[in-house]
Write a structure and sequence with these properties.
Length: 529
Amino acid sequence: MRVPKTILAIAVPMLAAPFLALAAGQKAKSPPKPKAAPTVPSTSEGCVNCHGISNPGIVEHWAASRHAEKGVGCFDCHQAEKGDADAFEHEGSVIAVVVTPRDCARCHEREDQEFERSHHARAGNILASLDNYLAEIAEGARAPFDPHSRTPGREGGSKVNGLASLQQGCQQCHGGKVALQAKEGAPITVDDLKPGPDGRPTAAAVERVARDPYGRPILVPGSWPNTGIGRLNLDGSLGSCAACHSRHDFSARRARQPEGCGKCHLGPDHPQKEVYEESKHGIAYRDLKERMNLDARSWVLGKDYAQAPTCASCHVSANVNGGKVTHDIGERISWTNRPPVSAVMDTDASRKVVTEADPEKRQALVADTWQQKRDRMKQACTVCHASSYVDAFYKGYDDFVVLYNEKFAKPGRMIMGELYKQGLLTKKEFDEEIEWTWYLLWHHEGRRARHGASMMAPDYAHWHGMFEVAEDFYMKLVPQAREIAAHAAAQGKKGEAAAVNALVDQILARPEHAWLQAEQGKAQAAPAR
């Protein structure tokens, strides 16, 4: 059916009007004014004059910041009190080198409270995780050891730092414990200082802090520098605002761009940046970045820009549908795809994921449901997409995660659990091949698949994801479990071996795995040539 020209003449301008208004609004914005000379408060004049010569980059970054524009100087952030663990007197002022979220909270209280309850703030929990174990043990060593040969040009008998991989890898994203050298004994951390609610140390450990000839406390290399987002600070606070808002210009523009998130959210186990770049969102961002008002004071999706979303647009920033700025990055995430088996993001009052399975007990624990989180994300989605489109996307995403969980993750976890239960694997992690296979299946390939589906990146969902999950499950995990059972039977552990084989048989007899059994049956029945 042909649409009459008169209808088109009325309808097209009506449909285009909101977008033309947004574009016109953006064009109407006056070009940014040249930066005024920074306002240097009297308490920071000495800092600026001296460090302008010795560290000009620091001062230049600060001078171009909004802090400088508003008269917030060096001392406002670095000020400390006598008795603070890392405090020292410098040119007549008591200051500290490490600026923590507690310091930022003097001006940014709401942002600090939001961040403090976020998963980002707890990223330092990796200190007790499998990832940390790999870095400490498999990649390195918990104790220093002697080098086994000389490195030409580096003479001397210094020991090898077995924690270097942990310190330069894991802890630079997740954060570690900031430590001070002690006059004697082990380094001093938040555990020794036992800070009170005000961040002041309550233990006498401050007296043990080693200082340089200028009176400055000596920070332990390996613990500092560190801008890990879950850093465990000496004052008891968690995190580093500089993880996203780089010091010393504290740029909102930089935090709005995906490259900032890419410091940590990339690589084989959590390739969110690469996934985003492959998606239509990432393609549009690269094409239209110059039109996205990244420097604007107000940065509301649907009002100040609508060309493309960035990580911040969806997870942090405001939008015209009621979404407010938040520094709790999990407020809009409905699945957690970090563990071996994905779980919906029902969280309790402390923002921890509720794992209780009993429906009544679970309901009593949940303070914020996964559906509420999804509704917040949809506020951002529907700025540019129809509700039906968004609902259809989430249906596909949910189906994908459930498929991964039910076909591979839960069965894989069951097989590994049975091997441990029957005593066919040692309690030590990563000393047997199947443990590496299982870890790569869920931690690398499984996460890539789920992240690919979550951000509409089909190649990561399929080829870099589920294809490799399936390959590892069928061609490595299952055969390795069978081989372990065979070795156990040969050593007289027939009952334990039978239990493992029975479970594998039960799993592979399910309809979703029937194709493999059928093909293997044909191969076994075929006559030898």
